[in-house]
Records
---
Amino acid sequence: MMTPIDFIILGVIIGSNNLAVALALGALGQAERRLRVMLVFGLFEFFVPLVGIWLGSATAEAIGLQTNVVGAVLLVGLGLSAVIVGLRDQKADEELARRVTEWRGLLFLAACLSVDNLAVGFGLGLGRANPLAVATAIAFFSVLFTWAGMRLGRDSRHGWERGAKIVAGALLVGLGLAGGAGWF
């Protein structure tokens, strides 16, 4: 069973991906579209973990294996991939940012950002996490971090995007290891 602190930690870890993207979008002149970005990110960040939890629960019933180990491996793998992505050098320009924050681009971006939420939801669904509490925590922190990132990014980026991805990945690895060890 997850404690309130577990939900806060999970929300902060998952929401940090949105912070990284929002910092970049804000730095590239898209801060005026922050309400649109927050709406779309919030909806995806709420519903995608629910789908993941449902899939994880169904899988746990079907396979009946040591599900905490499977969930931990998924979270560690996801965290390592986030660290690798954060270490790569990526350049973006204002035209790309403008296209990404149009409705079609924003839906695609939110879907891409939510893939990790599907995996996290799946891993948590293998255990006994409260689906609505998980989805609410993730969506709350994602929207909060999107708002903060777009405002901060508007002023200055200072390489935070890369660091935020690396930190988020490392935290996911830690969350996976803690779950595998049975700490929650």
---
Amino acid sequence: MNHSFLQSTLRELQVFLHSRRFWGTFAAIVLIFALTGPYGTMESMAFGERLTYWLSLHALAWTIAILCAVAAEKLLREMIASMFTRMMTGSLAAALPIGFAVGLVHYAFTGETTTLESGLQRALFSVPLCALFCLLTYMAMSEKIADAAAPEESNPGASILDRLKPENRGPLLRLSVRDHYTEVVTSRGRELVLLRFADALKETAATSGLRVHRSYWVADAHVEGIKRDNGRLTILTRDGTEIPVSRSYAEDVRRRFT
């Protein structure tokens, strides 16, 4: 496990630690459980004990869910392109340890031991809650998590090609944004790189090209021509790909390629 991996993981965990919305949601849920006393805790525990019980239970469960989601988001990047799918995979996997962790909290407060069967039942009950946790977390914090996961700003003079696998290194053709990644296309292949698009553009200095859209950059040598359709410009590349041109870049594209 390399140093940059650890740094990136810690930055993602800090997103949760520094999020007021996250802690506000956590506090509200704990308070709701303490006030309503579900699962018989209203009858068996006084308010102070009940609050401590639900605070301990949720703190442990949320910690496990966060650790599993962040770990999966990091470790599954080579296999799963979607950040949401990676986080959901980790969150669902967290249901099993959460089921037995809840049993430990319950034992500490009630003395009731957890069997294999009861632990698995709690884990099964936790599955939809873990899925909901992941969904809400992704909707509220996905951009911040992606920013934290991305490498820090590139070094001056660095080349985007150096980030690619050796077999994919060739003349640079185009870049595009793909779900918090930058897709790099060369004459030898394509690859997703975890790098902010703005930083990726800084690493194209060795190749003459132009940003034509908020999500696209294309090398000059890769442009076959441009076409206009209902007032909208599109770049035609030498491999047949059509790249949209946004209005803010349209004048630069016309000057350069016509």
---
Amino acid sequence: MKAVRRIVPGIDDHILFVDRTTTRWMEHWIGKQYGPAISTGQTPRQVGKHRPPVTTPVDGLYLAGCGAGGRGVGTELAADSAIECAEHILDDLGRTPPPSWIPPRDPAPTLPASIWRNLTRPAPRRTRQPENPVAHH
């Protein structure tokens, strides 16, 4: 946090909480060697245009990796997030990346409203039909 405070003066005014841990503890907690973990909730409400952005309300503070921006899955998602973050940084600095550096981006795909509603609300609970004890074969 000391390094972050030097780079982003006043950051403490925007922090809601700080959660610190080690990869050794994460390895123990989630049962994966070296402690890899997904950083954001993997829910329909955090994909596509609903994903946390790479920009933040704090000037000069950007987020990159599997937890913000980007498209795709796994390494592709983290790498795309880093590229998107770099684009924002360059834009904020008034610089333009060379045309060969970044291929054109397609807009994020969108789901029809009917499918989106089904993804974001719980499915109805199905009750098991009682067996008919009188039926004979």
---
Amino acid sequence: MTRTSMGKPELNIKDPDQSRVWRFELRMGRKQLRERFDIRGWDDLNAQAGDAFTDFCERMRYCIPTADRNRARWPTHELWRAVTQTIEIDLHENIAGVLPRDVKDANRDAHMRMLDRQLLGLFISRAAASGVTAGEFSDFMEYHVNALQRASDEHPVPLDERIDKAAARYRWT
């Protein structure tokens, strides 16, 4: 697309005020791509490039300085709005809308809630098998947790090895 086809005059290099050219280069490194977006290959990049660039544009902006000492109140420059709008339009197909880390955290939280419900159900079943009443349940829990701690201490495989083995089963994806 040419400037004339957009209704704009041709560039006049001799008059920089009328023909100023701006170049915005957005670069992301390992921390942004791998750690924040879990991008590990070309397919991941294709699926999430829009998310990564949108996030990048939200974390920084090009402003018009004013007399206000609070830079947060400085207006965003029209060029930066054009850059972010172009990214939104051009990379729309490459936006998942959610960070992989957030999905992993949500999955881990849901799994922990499920395990807690299972533990509670097992404790209630164990209490019922032992003839424990609702009024005795709290004392039963305290006693039984201590008994489980002793059993764990006496287990032939060290606790750190058992925890590492259990942790290896989860990827939270």
